[in-house]
C-alpha cells in the first residue's frame, strides 16, 4: 500500500527508544573495552547466518504501536558508524502496577552488556505520565551497577526526552514495504526521526509496523551517519531475564 507522502517534520521516533538503552552503559564508562576476539567471531558468525525473510505481514489497519505486555521481545542487528555490527535484544519482562520491567542485551565486538529498567507508562498517549523508576546495568565483566539517588535523577532528566518517544502515532505518515530478516512487512510507516539524549544526537529514516512489539521498529537508516538497524527476530511471548 502506498500513500502520498506529506512534508516531513522533525520529530523523535522509535530509534530514540533504542538509543535510550544503548547509551546508558556509555554514560557510565569513561572508555569502552577493547575488542574481544571470541565475541567478534561470534557476532560475525551470527551476521553471516542471517537468511532471507520467510514470513510476510500484511498492511496495518491502525496507526499506533501494540500495547506493552509481559513476554514481548525484539532483536535487531545494528551497524554503527565504524561498520561494526552488533545485536540488540529488548524484552518486556513483567508488569508492576503502571510500570514495566524492560531489559536490553547488547552483544557486540567488545562483549555483552545488559540493562534493566522499571519504566512507568500509565498512558502511552500522555508523555508527561512516563517515568524511569529504577535502572541497573551489568557490564561486559559481569559487574552490576544500580542507579539510585542523584545518579538516577540525572539519568531521568537526560533521557526523559527519549522515553517520551514511546508516545507514538503514525497517522498521516507515508507507507511502504520493508524487507528485513524477520520478514516482509507491507505498509510500514516511514518517518524522519531526530532525537537528542544528553550530548548525543541522531537523525534517521525509520520504517515501523504495529505487528512488531515495543516501538514497532522494522528498520532504520542513518541520515547524518552511516548507521543502520534491521529487525532479525521478535515474539509476543517468551521473554526471560538474562540479568
Report on the structure:
- The chain has 243 residues and is α+β, with helices and mostly antiparallel strands.
- The protein has one domain (14-235).
- The protein contains three helices and twelve strands; from the N terminus they run H-H-E-E-E-E-E-E-E-H-E-E-E-E-E.
- The protein has helices spanning 14-28, 37-49, 149-163, and strands spanning 56-57, 73-79, 85-96, 99-108, 111-120, 131-138, 144-147, 175-180, 183-197, 200-208, 217-222, 228-235.
- Strands 1, 2, 3, 4, 5, 6, 7, 8, 9, 10, 11 and 12 form a twelve-stranded mixed sheet that branches.
- Helix 1 (14-28) packs antiparallel against helix 3.
- The model is unreliable at 1-13 and 23-31 (pLDDT under 50).
Choose one word for the global shape: globular
Q: What is the residue-averaged pLDDT?
A: 82
Which structural class fits the helix and strand makeup? alpha+beta
Helix content: 10-25%
Largest sheet: 12 strands, mixed
Order of helices and strands: HHEEEEEEEHEEEEE
Low-confidence stretches are: 1-13, 23-31
Tally of strands = 12
Q: Give the tally of structural domains.
A: 1
**Count, helices:** 3
Cα-based radius of gyration, to the nearest Å: 17 Å
Q: Tell me the strand percentage band.
A: 35-45%
Distance between the termini: 41 Å
Key traits:
single chain, 243 residues, alpha+beta, globular, disordered N terminus
Summarize the structure.
With 243 residues, the chain is of the alpha+beta class. It contains 3 helices and 12 strands; from the N terminus they run ααβββββββαβββββ.
